[in-house]
Every structure is written in structure tokens, then in C-alpha cells.
Specification:
Elements (H helix, E strand, L loop, with lengths): L1 E8 L2 E8 H9 L4 H4 L4 H7 L3 H27 L4 E6 L5 H8 L2 E6 L4 H10 L5 E2 L17 E5 L21 H12 L3 E7 L8 H13 L3 E8 L10 E8 L2 H6 L12 H4 L33 E4 L8 E2 L9 H22 L6 E2 H10 L7 H9 L3 E7 L5 E7 L13 E3 L16 E4 L8 H13 L4 E3 L2 H7 L14 H7 L3 H12 L7
Parallel strand pairs: 3-4, 3-6, 4-5, 6-7, 10-11, 15-16
Antiparallel strand pairs: 1-2, 7-9, 8-9, 10-15, 12-14, 13-14, 16-17
């Protein structure tokens, strides 16, 4: 695909057609086409260069620059403070952080080829490639391994997954990780996993992992850290395990200090024309930008589109259509009923309910009475849908649930719209959720004004957009020169990655124990 660019030669515009991939390579190393060819403009002017000749010139300069950068990198690597092996490398979040702190990569392991392509574009590939860690035993790199790191696949322990733990092949990768540490005996290790590993339902698994490391001669600490406490706006909580062969070194290790930096989403993603605090004093009393999603009484710098929850900044599908007050009351009460009654009658939260079930529950709470026609009208309006069920007598019955019955999918493929003033953003995941950013802050001195302003000036006027791949990268702390996947997988890969600043601070804390000098 050719992209048209302009060179400014002696204040004249000279149109050039050049592949977009080359333009991306130029931008990735911090140049515009003009600045990249700055030393050649006089030659181009005098020689009447064509686009083809300019392309050849660009290719030659890129090759020379890459060779120079590679040589410089090799020289820098020879002066590194410690060595490491990068397990479950992904696109290289761990490696980026470790090299920033003086680390030299000896070997890396990854099985996703699309991630490896990104890894290869950003790092030297002269190190030993380990492939699948199941086939790795002793890592023969000709020198001692100071540190082994990795983000062990987390779906087995994630609250968003099926919580199968060691019953899942991915959960058993912890066993492979422990085996590799045992066979290679690094001075220390640093592993990352989802916060769910520390949940009570996984307490036996966590104890097993810690005991397994102790049995092979390591003393271990673990702690849940949030990316938001390390200069990022993303509220990403992950558990980190740090282990040393010497108890004295573990005692010397201190978890990194968190920062109290107040940074907004608009600043982090570099939203065009955004100025922090431009909403001034026009904010409702009691706003809590950092309140977690799902907190019922919170009033936040984001609006959630969901029919299955309530809250000051939650909007429902029926808020944008004409319904009766009775229908509204049925909808709002059904939100809690489908959870409590669904679990009581059918064994799970959010189970569809029959008209008989709903009506009986309403009467028991002395709420109000309504007819089957009310539910059917809500079906016709696209708020409810029908399900076939069997009653206690074995007879067929119709049950009802919201059309938009899953919170994470929102409404019409829209879940959250954040104000650029928000100082907290939801955790990026591999599967993603339909989140957007408003192009300007929300205004309003009362909660009613705040909500109406959002509907009239943000939602209805479509003053919002989705985040770009590059903005996702910024939320994870990846620098703008980091080359991202161009095959549409960048957001998935970034959702699986680690937050770079958190790893940097953890590695600095490990270095401060002087373990690499022993």
C-alpha cells in the first residue's frame, strides 16, 4: 500500500509516493520523512529524484541506521549488569523492562508465532530460542543465569476464566516453570500472574507453588501490585512472586515504593487538544474517579452501558427509549431478582425467570403488581427475551431475561465510555471489552446535570471513540518507538503483556539486594 507524503525542499512541497510500511519504520525510530532525509534534501533537489529513487535512498539509510543501532546495542549489552532468561516472552514486556535496568537476555521462550514476530522486530534475536518450555531442561548458554522471569499463562486462575487451576494445561505450566528453575538454579526469579491466584478458592494451589519453590531451595515472597501505583492510569492488579536462594537476600528485598502521581487518561494516551482539568469546578459532589467498576454507590469519571447493574453512572437500554413508569420499575427490580432468585431457584446468578417467579417475588416484597402483558411489551421493545423452560411439574414454561444479559458486552457493543479526566482505566485483557474514551470531559454540578450532559453532548453527538493500538501500548507503559503487530492482534498481545514500569521497579528492587554481585 502506497502512502503519499510531502517533502519540503526549499519551502516547496514535493509529493512522494512511498510504502506505508517504510513510513512506519521511519516513525518508529523517531523521525518524519522530512527529518529522516534532512541531510539529503539538497541532493534530492538538484538531482530531480523520483519517488522510486527516494524509496531506494530511504531503504539504504534505514539499513545503515539499523546496522549502526545493532552495533551500538551489542556494545551496550556487553556492559550489562546481570543476565536473564525470558520465559513466556510474549511480545517482550519483561525483556524491555529488564534491559532498561541493565539486563542481558541469554535465552527466551514463546510458542505464539505472531508474538515472536513482534519480539523479533524489537529485540536482537541472537539469543538462544527455547521454543516450548515443556521441551526445555538445562539452558546451555555458556554462562551463569542470574535471573529467570516470566508471565506464566493466567487463564486457569483468572476470575474471567473457568478457574480450572492445575486441571488446565495452562495451569500446569507452573509445574514446568518450577522444573526449569530447579534445573538451572538462577540466583533469583520473578514471575507474574493474575490476582485470582491469591483468591481463597486457589489458596491450596498457591501454597503448593510456594512450597514447591521452597523444596528446590528458594525463599519466596509474593504480593499483589497495581499498575496504577507505578505511574500508569490502568488499574491492573497482578500478583508477583520473587525468589532467592539465600534467606538473607529475601530479607533484604523490599517491595518497590508506589507513586502518588495523579495522571489522567487523556494525558497518558496523548488525546488531541486535551488539557487536564479543563472542566474546572463543574463537577458533581462526591465523584470518585478511582472507584472500581461494579461499585454500586460510586459516581465515576466513566459511564457504563449495562442492563444488569445499577449505579449513579450506569445507563440502561430503556434510558434511550419510551417506556412506562411501570415497565421501568419492572426492569430495575429485575436486575437484583435475576441474581438472587436465579441462584435460589435454578442454581446460578442471572438465570432466566418465569412470570410466576417474578410476580411472586414482587408481591412478597410489597413492591407492585403487574401483568404478563407488561413483560411481553418489554419483549417487543427489545429489552427482554424469552427462553423455554420446564416447571416443577414437568410442564413447559416461558422464562424471561434481559436481551443484554452479560455485563462485559454492554449494550450495542458498548460497555464503558471514559472521560479523559479519569485517573483510572479498566484492566486491559486479551479478549478485550468494548471501552471508549470521550473526546472531552463530562460537566455538571449535580449528578443529574452530569448524566444529562453526558447523554446530550457526548453520547448523542458521538463525541467518543475507541482506543488505538498505540494508546493500548501507552496504557501498558510501552514506549512509542516499540513496534506493534500490524495484523490486528496488537490489542490481544498487549492485554497479555506485563506493565513495563512495574517490572522495571521490581527489577530495581531485586538489584538493590546486591544479589547480582554475589
Amino acid at each position: 500500500m502506497l502512502t503519499k507524503e510531502y517533502l519540503y525542499i526549499n519551502h516547496r512541497r514535493h509529493q512522494v509516493s512511498i510504502e506505508s510500511e517504510l513510513i512506519e519504520q521511519i516513525r518508529a525510530i523517531g523521525y518524519s520523512l522530512d527529518s529522516f532525509l534532512q541531510d539529503d534534501l539538497e541532493q534530492i533537489e538538484s538531482a530531480d529524484f523520483s519517488s522510486k529513487k527516494i524509496k531506494e535512498l530511504v531503504l539504504n539509510k534505514l539499513e545503515q541506521m539499523h546496522q549502526s543501532l545493532e552495533k551500538q546495542k551489542e556494545e551496550e549489552m556487553s556492559k550489562k549488569d546481570f543476565t536473564f532468561v525470558d520465559l513466556f516472552a510474549g511480545i517482550g514486556g519483561f525483556r524491555l523492562a529488564l534491559e532498561n535496568q541493565g539486563g542481558k537476555c541469554l535465552a527466551y521462550s514463546e510458542i505464539q508465532w505472531d508474538s515472536l514476530r513482534v519480539y523479533a522486530q524489537n529485540f536482537s534475536m541472537n539469543e538462544l530460542f527455547l521454543g516450548d518450555i515443556k521441551a526445555v531442561s538445562q539452558i546451555d548458554v555458556g554462562q551463569a543465569i542470574d535471573l529467570i522471569v516470566g508471565g506464566v499463562p493466567c487463564q486457569s486462575w483468572s476470575s474471567a476464566g473457568k478457574n480450572r487451576g492445575f486441571d488446565d494445561d495452562r495451569g500446569r505450566l507452573w509445574l514446568e516453570t518450577i522444573r526449569i528453575v530447579k534445573e538451572n538454579q538462577p540466583k533469583c526469579f520473578l514471575f507474574e500472574n493474575v490476582k485470582g491466584l491469591t483468591d481463597p478458592r486457589h489458596s491450596k494451589a498457591l501454597k503448593f507453588i510456594l512450597k514447591a519453590f521452597e523444596d528446590i531451595g528458594y525463599f519466596v515472597k509474593y504480593k499483589v501490585l497495581s499498575s496504577k501505583d507505578f505511574g500508569l492510569v490502568q488499574a491492573r492488579e497482578r500478583v508477583f512472586l520473587v525468589g532467592f536462594r539465600d534467606q538473607a537476600l529475601l530479607d533484604r528485598f523490599s517491595w518497590p515504593q508506589t507513586t502518588s502521581q495523579d495522571i489522567s487518561l487523556g494525558e497518558v494516551i496523548k488525546l488531541d487538544q486535551y488539557q487536564k482539568n479543563q472542566r474546572q469546578a463543574d463537577t458533581p459532589i462526591g465523584i470518585d474517579s478511582s472507584a472500581s467498576v461494579g461499585k454500586q454507590k460510586s459516581f465515576n469519571d466513566y459511564f457504563i452501558f449495562s442492563d444488569v447493574r445499577t449505579g449513579e453512572t450506569t445507563l440502561h437500554s430503556w434510558d434511550f427509549m419510551h417506556i412506562t413508569e411501570l415497565e421501568r420499575c419492572v426492569c430495575l427490580n429485575f436486575i437484583s431478582l435475576r441474581r438472587s432468585l436465579g441462584k435460589q431457584l435454578y442454581g446460578r446468578d442471572g438465570a432466566p425467570l418465569s412470570f410466576k417467579d417474578i410476580q411472586a417475588a414482587m408481591k412478597a416484597k410489597d413492591l407492585f403488581d403487574f401483568s404478563l402483558d407488561t413483560l411481553e411489551d418489554l419483549v417487543q421493545k427489545g429489552i427482554f427475551k424469552r427462553f423455554d423452560g420446564i416447571d416443577e411439574d414437568g410442564k413447559r414454561e416461558i422464562r424471561y431475561d434481559f436481551v443484554n444479559s452479560k455485563q462485559s458486552t454492554g449494550i450495542d457493543d458498548m460497555y464503558r465510555i471514559y472521560s479523559p479526566d479519569s485517573v483510572s482505566f479498566s484492566t486491559l485483557t486479551a479478549t478485550g471489552s468494548p471501552d471508549y474514551i470521550a473526546l472531552k470531559p463530562f460537566l455538571g454540578k449535580t449528578s443529574k446535570e452530569y448524566c444529562q450532559y453526558f447523554i446530550d453532548h457526548i453520547y448523542k453527538k458521538k463525541q467518543f471513540r475507541s482506543l488505538t493500538d498505540r494508546e493500548f501500548a501507552r496504557l501498558q507503559g510501552f514506549p512509542d518507538h516499540f513496534i506493534l503487530c500490524k495484523q490486528g492482534n496488537a490489542k490481544r498481545q498487549l492485554g497479555n503483556a506485563v506493565s513495563v514500569p512495574v517490572i522495571e521497579q521490581l527489577v530495581l528492587a531485586i538489584k538493590n539486594t546486591n544479589v547480582f554481585n554475589t
